[in-house]
Amino acid sequence: MSMEQRERRAAILTYHVGNRNFSRIFKENSLEEAKNVVQRKLQLPPGSVVKLRAARSSKTFIELDDDDDFDAFSLRAQMLRLVDVVVDVKYPLPMESRAAKNKRKATNDQQPEDANATATPQPKIKKRKTDQPAAEGNAPKHAQTPEVPETDFKEKLNAAERALKDCQDEFDRIFKQMEESLRG
């Protein structure tokens, strides 16, 4: 089978990352490869953790935690041809934040040299108030995963399910015509 024929028969995955969506032809052979697709598309920093959930209905999501989950997902994607995948991203702390945190902890854990002296506590770092919600680590703003209103996602998923049903009905109709023409 040629590459073009395989791609025509392949499933289309639509990834939902907050209010951002993108689609890809499903070619991956493992869960790790699927996560790498998301990392490359969103240009995530090293150390970011990507979690994938396959939408079964507007209320049911299947966590893709291991290759067995991925195998079942892969088979379902081949059968349905159109599949929605919800993406959750957790960003790493910047290196300087980790180093500063470890340094403060080490300083606070030291005992004073004089038994009668008391350790001076480290001053607390004040957080500046902003209009922006707090973000984990140094994540790029476009790749953050804000909450999407459930109704918007449900509407999109229901529309996709209706479109899929229409496609399957059309496929069945064409298939029957082909069978009849081959018999006749």
Give the secondary structure arrangement, pairings included:
Elements: H1 3-9, E1 12-17, E2 20-25, H2 31-42, E3 49-55, E4 61-64, H3 67-80, E5 82-90, H4 95-109, H5 150-183
Architecture overview:
It is a single chain. This protein is an alpha+beta fold and 184 residues long. Helix content is 45%, strand content 17%. The protein has a domain at 3-94 and 137-148: Ubiquitin-like (UB roll) (Roll), CATH 3.10.20.90. The chain has five helices and five strands. Strands 2-1-5-3-4 form a five-stranded mixed beta sheet, sandwiched between helices. Strand 1 and strand 2 (20-25) form a beta hairpin. The radius of gyration is 25 Å and the shape is elongated.
What is the gist of this entry?
The chain is α+β, with helices and mostly antiparallel strands. 45% of the residues lie in helices and 17% in strands.
